[in-house]
Amino acid sequence: MLYGVLAFAQSRVVNGKVTDDAGSPVAFATVTEAGTNNAVTADADGNFTFRVNPDAQLTITGVGFQSQTVPATGASSVRLARSNQRLQEVVVTGLGIASRKDRLTSSQSTVKGAALAESGETSVLNGMASKASGVFVSRSGGDPGAGTYIQIRGQSTITGNLQPLFIIDGVPVSNATLGQGTDGVVQQSRMNDLNAEDVESMEVLKGAAAAALYGTRAANGVVLITTKKGRNSKKVNISLTNTYSVDKLNKSVPLQRNYGQGTNGRYGYGSNGNSRSWGDKISERAGGEDVFNTDGPYAILPDGSKRYLVSSGTADDPHGGKRSQTTYDHAKDLFEDGYYLDNTLALSGGDEKGVFYTSISNLKQDGILKAGSDYDRKTFRLNADRKFGILKLAGTFNYIHSSSDRAQQGSNISGIFLGGLRTAPDFDNTFFEGTYVDASGAQFPNRQISYRNPIGARTNSGYDNPFWILNRIKNKSTLNRVTGSFEGTINPLSWLTIVERAGIDNYTDKQLENFPSISSTFPGGQLSLQTISETQFNNDLFARGSFDLTSNLNLSVLAGFNFNHRDFENVGATVRNFINEDILNPRFDFGNSPGDARFPFNGESHIRTTAGYAQVSVGLFDQLFVDVTGRSEAASTFNNTFFYPSASIGWQFSKLSTFNNSKFLSFGKIRASYGEVGVQPEPYLLSTYYNPLVIAESYGPTLDASSQTYSGGGYARSSIKGNPDLEPERKSEFEVGTDLRFLDNRISLSGTYYKNKTTGAIFSVQVPASTGFLNINDNAAEIENKGYELDLGLNWIRSEDFSITTNIVASTNKNKVISLKGVESFFLQGFTGTSSRAVEGLPLGVLW
């Protein structure tokens, strides 16, 4: 239902407001004087002002409603039958400004909050997977609460951040993932803190033209998230959402189970140096119970039983004392069914003066590992706005508390897979701990038992037993986060809107990592405690004017100023060689180590950015649209000021008279755009700095000047020279595309071709040793990406209460490093042997 209140003056100016049957505004409804090209578009609140002839007829159309024509005489109530069309025409663009989707002049994908909530994922980023073309989403691990990697239109930088800029309700927020590595624990993405049930919609600005207003933080795209605000229902609406999901191991690693522990076809136990799984053939053993050496040392297991050694095989008897044909699947025995339970209670409501939305939620997840893998998140959100005449005030507040425990993984001798997958198939890992009894009868409790250390005789097991890792190594995180924003909007004139928006994002993450004193990685034990905190303050002040220059020509002008400040701090310490070695009751404090094994650390960074920006939008005959933007930016991470422009054009050719009565083509638009964005250098690359002195050899430090032995005061000048001429990386992009809908909007098709190039990509370049340095950070690389994107929507069945829709997304991306300024290759990541590198003429990250 649409309701219009129309008032006339002597000048034949019509003022009205378009609302739906619930009294909520219908944003961007089109009001046309019938029989003419005279038309206006209502604003985001449904208001319009219109000059018409005395006997005019008005045609009012709105997305989701059938059009209706009524006389423009006095106050009038217009009832429109609801259409079956399910178009999502109103979208959020840069700076949180609402716009008609059909008017967009560059590529932008919409993901509705309902689709995120219904995806069955615990993270909004995981819920984005396969819902927008050109967007690659990948989990960084299977642990509960683990981070998520998202990439838009390929890799555009070598050493900079590859993640897009995330903005919630107009305010930039952090999506940091700290503590991640191939030999450690996968930490969380900070976007995991957002409750999917609170999301109204998500807009992905993929191209440089769409994201140019965000300057040096937009090279990897921008994701605009709008949270729920409530509706003008004149009552309180209560919603309770409950989700329970069971997680199962998707696929295990196939392992051989034909040969036992040992080498050269002979059985051998771990303490004998036989750490491989190419011993005797298990199927050829006699069967039954093994023959144990009961006269020697042994282990007392937790169930009270004793485990003795088994004699190794010989050339004449390859089985030795081994008889049992029992094998174990080490790729599966670590796992069980996991689950998560997610509950959200939400209240919303409002009237014509304002609306509110508030929610509380709790997500609890236990992973598929049998221990040491859990995640618990609690959130509270309050969004509200209120109108006071020409002034509208709005605010948001979100509090998050989460805690988690995750397992060691990756290329790590204390990682569950390295030891787990290398365990011989005839060794039972489930008895991971016991009391070692030597030949003299002396007992050593809480010894680790593994296939290389079957009775706990040694304090170093070579590779830690994966069950011991899950139960004894702790990797805990406790987070508290607050995000909030305040927005004031004033309309002093009918054509002018002024917006002041300020927001803050602050989190503190306390992380603990503890290796007991008999771990293989740190035989003396290691405890790391650190507190990671980040605060971001953002302020935007902008004014927007909209003018109807003629009945067929409208102009919108926006100008504003941005201030952004980010503080980051990581403070903590690492201690080793525990004095109290109680594994079952560890001391999580720095006093549990000698003075020469204490290593405090404290790192911090501060980034400040200021920018002025402007946008000019022109619409001609409500079918040809042109957008031009510019942003001039300065920041503490680089010298000078840099300008980022964009221009885009879109033509709705389906509004030509040729297509007026077309039953096949419902909508058609072609568009093209060009834009430039950037990547800020990391802080402090302009200057040469000093580091705590660490002289290392092979795999471990031999001298660490940060320890108390040297009073924690030893520093050395960095081997990397500061570069005061460093500039932001610059990415330029051209795209062309089309948006089509057919058969009364039952079929939708969007296609885009893009090509972008990053110049001045920063990486560390070698310099002659005679300079006193080894490297300098320089704008030395060029990277190119190009590809196609396709979004296809098929609405098979649609009615007011039921519909069946299929959405298909497809995309390609070809990435190539164009130049490295004479450097053959640049190391990115790796351990030994083959590594991931940047190589001229090849895709970024190629194995080399």
- Helical fraction equals under 10%
SS-based class: mainly beta
Uncertain runs? 1-11, 84-88
Proportion of beta-strand residues: over 45%
The CATH architecture of the domain at 92-229 comes to Beta Complex
Write down the overall geometry: elongated
Number of H- or I-type helical stretches: 5
Largest sheet: 19 strands, mixed
CATH class identity of the domain at 92-229:
Mainly Beta
Here the CATH topology of the domain at 92-229 equals Ferric Hydroxamate Uptake Protein, Chain A, domain 1
End-to-end C-alpha gap: 63 Å
Q: In total, how many beta strands?
A: 49
Rg for CA atoms: 32 Å
Question: Mean pLDDT, nearest integer?
Answer: 87
Question: What would CATH call the homologous superfamily of the domain at 92-229?
Answer: TonB-dependent receptor, plug domain
Describe this structure in words.
This protein is mainly β and 848 residues long. It is built from five helices and 49 strands. Mean pLDDT is 87; it is low at 1-11 and 84-88.
